[in-house]
Write a structure and sequence with these properties.
Elements lengths: L4 E12 L2 E13 L4 E5 L6 H8 L8 E9 L2 E2 L5 H11 E4 L3 H4 L6 H11 L7 H8 L3 H15 L5 H5 L8 H13 L5 E5 L7 H17 L3 E6 L2 H7 L2 E6 L2 E7 H6 L4 H8 L38 H5 L12 E2 L20
Parallel strand pairs: 3-8, 3-9, 6-7, 7-8
Antiparallel strand pairs: 1-2, 1-4, 4-5, 9-10, 10-11
The structure holds iron/sulfur cluster (SF4) and magnesium ion.
The site of magnesium ion has 4 residues, from strand 2.
């Protein structure tokens, strides 16, 4: 079966006075039907830029995007704006990390979500048609669907919530409202940006549990981006680890956590707060590369404890590459004995 979404050879640069910053440097990824995939990495690693490229939010200068992004057989970057909006409106939904800024403060939750239920999939309803439909019996049906969805996301007292403004809801309730909104038009692909990470840990866990149930019940494919590997572990089937504008490792979630291969992945996993004991591990020294003048070889070399001269010369190949796995690090060349590869202690 073909993947629902594939990204091939994605390159994104930003023109500036000082030159071209190569922020995404040859990214390849895919999401199978019904698969939940996370792109994980630090702030500035390029995960948001990857997401924005898929949504065609970077289709004008100073951004320069190249590569192929294929959604269910259709190449997205070459569609007209109107064709793209149709595909996006009918088949993709987004949930953002900041539910306050994603909801309109001047309309009730009921009005906003009912508009989405009624018009979310059509990008070009004319004004006359908009008002005709808004005051037709169709409105009541849409309202019913919203109520049903609010119940499904376990919103307390949904009838009351319909008449509330976003500012009257708690952060967790706003996040639930946004998730409900994202599912109203039965998307195939849900794109979730740092979902719940602005919330406190208990609420966050509840939101992730809810999300897992919804993914299953609605047979969603999901692309999630997060800087929090714990979130990736809780929700996803497979993880892409991104560093310096490149995917440096991918593996099924359990495998990635049990046997992380790339020195950067190992550092990230070691920096997750331990389940036992309350000390935070030290993390990884150094900072992400400068995109105007990135390291010429492996972009992690300046921070990598295993770096050799070879690493600084050329970009490493993707080794152990398969549909589900891969690691971009010279230590995984066949010539290197397994005993010389880095390992992390069990977390
Ligand atoms: Fe470290 Fe070299 Fe592997 Fe890069 S290629 S992660 S510098 S060992
Ligand atoms: Mg390049």
């Amino acid at each position: 079966e073909n993947p629902l979404l594939t990204v091939e050879d994605l390159e994104v640069g930003f023109e500036s006075f000082d030159g071209l910053a190569e922020v995404i440097d040859g990214v390849n990824l895919s999401i199978g039907k019904g698969e939940v995939v996370t792109i994980a990495g630090e702030t500035g690693c390029g995960k948001s830029v990857t997401m924005k490229s898929i949504l065609r939010l970077l289709n004008q200068p100073p951004a320069r995007v190249s590569g192929e992004i294929t959604f269910d057989g259709t190449e997205l970057l070459s569609l007209s704006d109107r064709e793209f909006e149709r595909v996006k409106g009918q088949r993709m939904s987004l949930v953002f990390q900041d539910p306050m800024s994603s909801l309109n403060p001047t309309f009730t939750i009921g009005e906003q979500l009912t508009d989405t239920a009624q018009f979310g999939g059509d990008s070009d309803t004319g004004v006359v048609e908009f008002f005709r439909r808004r005051f037709s019996g169709e409105r009541d049906e849409a309202r019913e669907r919203v109520l049903e969805m609010l119940r499904e996301v376990q919103m307390p007292d949904p009838e009351n919530i319909m008449d509330s403004y976003p500012s009257q809801l708690s952060g967790g309730m706003r996040q639930r409202a946004l998730i409900a909104q994202a599912l109203l038009n039965e998307p195939d692909l849900l794109i979730a940006d740092e979902i719940g990470t602005a919330l406190d840990v208990t609420i966050h866990d509840q939101i992730l549990d809810l999300l897992k149930d919804l993914i299953e019940n609605h047979d969603l494919s999901v692309l999630m981006i997060t800087h929090n590997l714990g979130v990736a572990r809780q929700v996803s089937d497979r993880v892409y680890v991104m560093y310096g504008g490149r995917i440096v490792e991918t593996a099924p979630t359990e495998e990635l956590f049990e046997n992380p291969k790339h020195p950067y992945t190992q550092g990230l996993i070691a920096s997750i707060p331990r389940l036992t004991g309350d000390e935070m591990a030290t993390g990884i020294d150094g900072s992400i590369p400068e995109y105007l003048d990135p390291p010429p070889g492996c972009r992690f070399a300046p921070r990598c404890p295993y770096a050799t001269a070879e690493c600084e010369e050329a970009r490493p190949e993707m080794y152990e590459r398969g549909p589900q796995t891969g690691v971009e690090c010279v230590l995984y060349d066949e010539a290197v004995p397994a005993s010389e590869r880095p390992t992390v202690e069990e977390t």
